[in-house]
Amino acid sequence: MTIDVDAMVRDAAALVSVPSVTGDERAALERLGELAAALGLECDLHRHDLAALRTHPDHPGEEAPRDELWGLTVTLPGTRPGRIALNGHVDVVSPGTEPWRLGPWSGAVEGGRLHGRGAVDMKGPVVAALHALAALKDQERPEVVLMAVPSEEDGGLGTFAELERDATFDAALLPEPTGLRVVCAQAGALTFKGEIRGVAAHAAERLSGHSAIDRYVKVHAAFAAHERAVNTDVAHPLMRELPLPYPLLVGQLHAGEWSSMVPDRLVFEGRLGVPVGADLQQARDELQAVLDRALDDGLPPCRLTWEGGAFAPGTTDPDHPWVKTVQEALAAETGSAPLAGVPWGADMRLFTARGIPAVMVGTRDIELAHAVDESVAIDELATVARTIVRAVNRAPV
C-alpha cells in the first residue's frame, strides 16, 4: 500500500495549526474538509441540532461552553458489502499557562516528530485516518466513513450526535493514542462536586466551631478506601493488568475565608473511574453512600452533584472477529499487537453501547496529551495509517 508520508505530515501540521479548543471546533473541521477534498474524497460538513441533543435522554454531558456543534464526515464508497466507521476528535484541551518551546499551534516538524496541541490527541491520528482513506481509493473495500468530531474532551457529544445521525456500521476503529496496542476495554469516568458545611468560629475559640476542612479530611480518607476496594479483584482481565484501572481523584479544593476563622464551607471537585460493566448511576450511588458514612456526625450532609461529561465504560469481546482483524493488521506493521484496556474515557463506548464492535489503536506518547510541548512520532502516524488500510481490507463484513 502507498501512504504519502510527506503529504500526511503536511496535512497534519496544517490541521494542528488551527486552534480548536473544545467548544470552538468549526474552523478545524472546515480545514480538514479542505484537506479531504484535495485528496479527492467526499466530505460533508454539517451542523447538529444542539438544542435537541441537550434534551436527549442519553445526552452524554458537556463541560465546555458552546452555542453550536458541527461535524464532518468523509465517506469512501464501498466496492463490496459492509460499512466501517473511523472516528477521531479535532477538539483539544487548552494549551495551558506554561510556555511552549515551539508554540501550541506551530505544527512544527522537528526530529521526526510533529509538534503542537493535538499532535497526538488526536489531530495527527485523524489525518492519518484521512490518508488511509486516500490509500484505499484504488482497492476493493467496504464503505468507510471517517467521523471527525468535536466535543470528545468534555463528554463525547460530537460522536453521540453523529451516531444519532447514522449508526449503521458493522465495526469501528478509533486511532486514539494506545501505545501501539489494540484496546477493546475502556473505563468510564464521571465528574463530581460537593459542598461540605461547617460551623464558623474565631480561631482562638475553635472548639466552639466545626471545621469544614476537618470534615473533608474524613471524606478524603473514605474516598481512598473506596478506590482501593473498587480496584481489588478487578473482573475484566485486560483492566486487571493496569496498575490502577479505576482511579478516584479529588482535583480541586476551595475552603475558608480568613486565616483566623474556623472554615464553615469547603467545595471539592473530582473524577470517579467507573469499572467496565458497571452502571453509571450505581457508581454515583456508591460514592454518595461512602460520603454519607464519612459525614455521619450530626452536621449537615453533603449531596454530590454530577456535572460535565458522563463517560460510560465500554468493551468489545477480545475474541470478536473485528478485534482479531485489527490485531492482525497491527502485527503485520509492527510485529506484535497486544490487547489492552485503558483507564480513561473515550468515544469508543458510544459505539459499543449501540452494539457496534469497536477498538482503539494508535501511537505511543499518550502521556504528552494535554501536556506542554505535545508531539507525536511521524513514523508512528504512518504505522497507524497503514494499519487502518490493512484492517479495512481484511474486514470480516
TrEMBL record:
Coiled coil: none annotated. Residues 185-295 form the Peptidase M20 dimerisation domain. The keyword NADP does not apply. Its cofactor is Zn(2+). Gene3D superfamilies: 3.30.70.360, Zn peptidases. Signal peptide: none annotated. It comes from the Bacteria. Keywords: Hydrolase, Metal-binding, Zinc. This is M20/M25/M40 family metallo-hydrolase. The lineage of its organism: Bacteria, Bacillati, Actinomycetota, Thermoleophilia, Solirubrobacterales.
